[in-house]
Amino acid sequence: QVQLVESGGGLVQPGGSLRLSCVASGNIYRLNTMAWYRQAPGQQRELVATITGGGSTNYADSVKGRFTISRDNAKNAVYLQMNSLKPEDTANYYCYVEVTTSNGIRFSEDNYWGQGTQVIVSS
Question: Strand 67-72 and strand 30-39: pairing?
Answer without folding.
Answer: unpaired
